[in-house]
Amino acid sequence: MNNDIEKTLYSAEEIKAAAHRLGMQLTEDYRDKRPILISVLKGAILWTVDVMKEMDIMAEVDFIDVSSYHGGLASTGEIQLIHDLSADVAGRNVIIMEDIIDTGRTLKFLIDLLNERHAKDIKVCTLLDKPEGRVVEAKADYVGFQLPKEFVVGYGLDYKEFYRNLPYVGVLKPEVYENDN
């Protein structure tokens, strides 16, 4: 797998430091609020776990699985709800835990869904924010790193379900995917 990576953008150590920084900030911002963290599967699971470990507050966690990439390089624009939440978010402080915000479509879909379900407050904590990719308005409240316009894998992010287990975020070599377009 490592041979398929052109360059490392964010090392395991840098990611750990970002998780610590944001975990401490969330601790301050949500003290005595008992938020529910909603981890967006599959990509955000590692980020969610690492940030949660840095939080010193009572917090619940739940999972939702939505997809707009369907294994490819770019968002299809069509959001599919694959696995819904088990918790009721009505009246709750919600923190959406994302791996990457690119086009913004998935995030907008999630925020609209949670608003329909009467969440009290919705904030977003993302590992990566790629503003250049936006096609709809979407904003993260807590950001690990600003991402340049690159196709990245690792630390939960995948290409065709692979590379998620890399401990860092790296740019995938174009020859790995260029014949798939």
Q: Output the number of helix runs.
A: 4
Gross geometry: globular
Could you say what the CATH architecture is?
3-Layer(aba) Sandwich
Secondary-structure element pattern, one letter each = EHEHEEEHEEEEH
Number of domains: 1
Count of DSSP E strands?
Answer: 9
Q: What is the overall pLDDT average?
A: 93
Give an overview in words:
The chain is an alpha/beta fold and 181 residues long. It has a single domain, classed as Rossmann fold. Helix content is 24%, strand content 29%. The strands form two sheets. The chain has a six-stranded mixed β-sheet with strand order 4-3-2-5-6-7, with helices on both faces. Strands 1-9-8 form a three-stranded antiparallel β-sheet. 34% of the residues are buried.
Describe the structure in brief.
With 181 residues, the chain is an alpha/beta fold. It has 4 helices and 9 strands.
Topology:
Layout: E1 5-10, H1 12-29, E2 36-41, H2 45-53, E3 60-67, E4 80-83, E5 93-101, H3 105-116, E6 121-129, E7 142-146, E8 152-153, E9 169-172, H4 174-177
Parallel strand pairs: 2-3, 2-5, 5-6, 6-7
Antiparallel strand pairs: 1-9, 3-4, 8-9
State the main characteristics.
guanine phosphoribosyltransferase activity, hypoxanthine phosphoribosyltransferase activity, 4 helices, three-stranded antiparallel β-sheet, six-stranded mixed β-sheet, globular, 181 residues, alpha/beta, Rossmann fold, Hypoxanthine phosphoribosyltransferase, 24% helix
